[in-house]
């Protein structure tokens, strides 16, 4: 695998393997979404992930990663990311729940995230999810050769802040390939005083805005994983794995 400015550049075969890894992730997220309803324990979603990984013959990417104890990050309401599935946490009408899921297929990683409303949600929660999802696509539009990495960041930041929402600074997107987290880091805001990386065909990026109703400040709970908003207002999270190609950005984490 070649490198450009410290970033791995994948060939067509490697991107093909990543496309399959991400297709599997997308299929699993589809099923998780179909099972979101009031009265369900969040452990159900973990069980679905484990079962589907076995059936697809893939390894859950997050299970055991730096000690993370589950295959799925399941984050509810004010939880931003890295939430634990639980038999006692029951999702209720009006909640929003974020799923972040990854797998390893033939040595390459897939990674994607979505946020779902549980039953009827508030107008504010629906707007939060819609803006976060759309900001992801605004960022993806900038993932073309010749652009700067921070063009992605600027597009996300401009869109989100235009609606008065906050952008989490503590967690960022990342390169992905034969490792879950590769260079470059992809912030959802434009850092000051740092020059970004020129984008080149063959780079594969996990772009993942995490957006809040209120402050972007973060607390990490006693489990040392679950990140929540400091003001305990709701947060949403969407992520796609995207290949930079000469024909424009190619979203790998889709089901078809």
Question: What's this entry about, in short?
Answer:
The protein has 256 residues and is α+β, with helices and mostly antiparallel strands.
Description:
- With 256 residues, the chain is an alpha+beta fold.
- Helix content is 27%, strand content 28%.
- It has helices spanning 12-34, 43-56, 123-141, 149-162, and strands at 2-4, 7-9, 59-60, 72-76, 79-81, 96-105, 108-117, 166-167, 173-175, 182-186, 204-207, 210-212, 218-220, 227-229, 235-237, 240-245, 248-251.
- Helix 3 runs antiparallel to helix 4 (149-162).
- The radius of gyration is 17 Å and the shape is globular.
- The two termini are 27 Å apart.
Relevant terms:
256 residues, alpha+beta, 17 strands
Form type: globular
* Cα gyration radius (Å): 17 Å
Largest sheet: 5 strands, antiparallel
Structural class: alpha+beta
* Helical amount: 25-40%
Let me know the number of strands.
17
Describe the strand arrangement of the main beta sheet, using strand numbers. 10-9-11-16-17
Number of helices: 4
- Provide the low-confidence segments as ranges: none
- Summarize the helix and strand pattern as letters: EEHHEEEEEHHEEEEEEEEEE
Give the distance, in angstroms, between the N- and C-terminal Cα atoms. Answer: 27 Å
Strand content: 25-35%
Q: Provide mean pLDDT, rounded.
A: 97
Topology:
Blueprint lengths: L1 E3 L2 E3 L2 H23 L8 H14 L2 E2 L11 E5 L2 E3 L14 E10 L2 E10 L5 H19 L7 H14 L3 E2 L5 E3 L6 E5 L17 E4 L2 E3 L5 E3 L6 E3 L5 E3 L2 E6 L2 E4 L5
Antiparallel strand pairs: 1-2, 3-6, 4-6, 5-14, 6-7, 8-12, 9-10, 9-11, 11-16, 12-15, 13-14, 16-17
Helix pairs in contact: 1-2, 3-4
């Amino acid at each position: 695998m070649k490198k450009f400015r410290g970033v791995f550049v994948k060939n067509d075969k490697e991107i093909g393997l990543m496309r399959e890894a991400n297709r599997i992730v997308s299929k699993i997220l589809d099923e998780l979404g179909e099972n979101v309803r009031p009265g369900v324990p969040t452990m159900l979603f973990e069980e679905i992930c484990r079962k589907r990984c076995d059936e697809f013959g893939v390894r859950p990417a997050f299970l055991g990663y730096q000690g993370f104890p589950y295959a799925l990050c399941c984050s509810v309401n004010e939880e931003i990311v890295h939430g634990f599935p639980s038999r006692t946490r029951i999702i209720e009408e009006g909640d929003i729940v974020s799923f972040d899921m990854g797998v390893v297929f033939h040595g390459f990683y897939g990674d994607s995230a979505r946020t779902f409303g549980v039953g009827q949600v508030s107008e504010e929660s629906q707007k939060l999810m819609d803006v976060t999802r759309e900001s992801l696509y605004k960022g993806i539009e900038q993932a073309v050769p010749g652009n700067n990495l921070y063009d992605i960041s600027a597009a996300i930041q401009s869109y989100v802040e235009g609606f008065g929402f906050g952008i989490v600074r503590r967690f960022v997107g990342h390169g992905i390939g034969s490792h879950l987290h590769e260079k470059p880091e992809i912030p959802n805001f434009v850092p000051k005083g740092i020059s970004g990386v020129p984008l080149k065909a063959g780079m594969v990026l996990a772009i993942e805005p995490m957006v809040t109703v209120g402050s972007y400040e973060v607390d990490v709970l006693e489990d040392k994983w679950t990140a929540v908003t400091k003001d305990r207002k709701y947060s949403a999270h969407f992520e796609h794995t995207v290949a930079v190609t000469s024909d424009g950005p190619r979203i790998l984490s889709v089901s078809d």
